[in-house]
Amino acid sequence: MTFLALGINYNTAPVAIRERLAFPADILAEALQDLICLNGVDEAVIVSTCNRTEFYCTMQFDNPNRLIEWIAKYKQLSAQDLTPYLYCHIDGASIQHLFRVASGLDSMILGEPQILGQIKTAYQAACDAGTIGKLLGKAFQHTFTAAKKVRTDTAIGSSPVSVAFAAVQLAQQIFEKLSEQTALLIGAGETIELTARHLSQQGIGRIIIANRTFEKAHTLAMQFDGYAISLAEIPNHLAEADIVISSTASQLPILGKGRVESALKKRKRKPMFMVDLAVPRDIESEVEQLPDVYLYTVDDLQYTIEQNMNSRRQAAEQAEEIIDTQVTYFLAWLRAQEAQSLIKDYRSQAELFRDEALQKALASLNKGISPEIVMQRLAHTLTNKLIHTPSTQLRVAAENERSDLLAAALEIFQLA
Predict the structure, then answer these.
(1) What is the CATH number of domain 2-158+312-335?
(2) Counting CB atoms within 10 angstroms of each CB, which of 255, 277, 353, 376 has the fewest?
(3) Catalytic residue among 37, 50, 88, 127
(4) Is residue 412 very low, low, confident or very high in pLDDT (cuts 50, 70, 90)?
(5) What fold characterizes domain 163-307?
């Protein structure tokens, strides 16, 4: 049995590749069930966020090629074109990678907390799809424990650093006073909620929240004295927005070049700051060609993010030590599972010897033989049965100069 982690992230693949490999919630269950139909794949979890898509599997083989071919076929890509962007971790390295990802140590923003919630969602999706079993189930439970310990025992999450925070910080660099600006936030998920909170804390003048479901937009807007609209109403309000930040799960762009150009004309060419935090992208890349638009994607935020990471790096060193310890604990549990079958077989054999000796002893008692003699025979027979095979194997080991087996026997039987 092999543990395997295969994927791409913001370090290995640009947005254009990541968005093609995204697995949105509406296709995730079907994809998971299709994946475990692949010969040799026993359990599977797919983690898909704007910054990464990763496949965690238990498999009967340790070569990732069959999995890569499945991904390419499922996403209608060329395996040859996909391979350069992929990374792969096997067994202990895959567990360590999973722990690091969940703890925010592999994130664009070091220590960001959202990834843990995303991994929990991916885990639940796999549970619902029936593609997670004992081994991956235990691995993910250990993952949640390790991530919680990192959060509790280090200061890695003490600074308010996230993609949303980085976007707001960049807006502050562009606009002298946020109190005089209007922000249009597209979406109503966790990232947009965090963005709205940061903007509100920085004194943004006005917030408009657009979402496919108006009720969700309204609920979120009420928290920040904002105004809610549906996606269909965006053209009527886009010209009001000095700041546009979008993060939806849409598979198609929400804003195109023509719509933004029309808004700019109404604004009389007053500049517009736009941040697209979605993968796939919500804002067509051609929008950046417009002269009065400053369009940024999640990749463009890297410099801003770097400025906010210094306070977390020392905590990350402590976190790595915690993760190493937790990985050791999990691998010890895993090795113990491998021994369970052996222990079970050995116990069954011993119980068989016991039952045979006991039946003979009871038969002897029924014949009127002295209980003292019967007990002596029982002890003698049972002892001989239990030690015969180990004794024979130890003699063979000594004849073959297998000092490793002799040393193991000393430890197992505690004879040293």
Answers:
(1) 3.30.460.30
(2) 376
(3) 50
(4) confident
(5) Rossmann fold (3.40.50)
